[in-house]
Design brief:
The chain has two helices and no strands. By secondary structure, it is an all-alpha fold.
């Protein structure tokens, strides 16, 4: 069960990164914020 949850989290994280990359960020700072927001969303989704 835990392995399945870990795989789901990894897949969600990868899909979030692809989405963020597709949206296009103009600066590294903006990219960092987007990745941080995506990570927070994934953490909130696993609670």
């Amino acid at each position: 069960m835990i392995q399945l949850l870990k795989r789901i989290v990894v897949l969600l994280f990868i899909s979030a990164l692809v989405t963020v990359a597709g949206m296009g960020c103009n600066t590294a700072h903006g990219f960092g914020k987007d990745v941080s927001n995506a990570g927070e969303g994934i953490q909130n989704g696993t609670k």
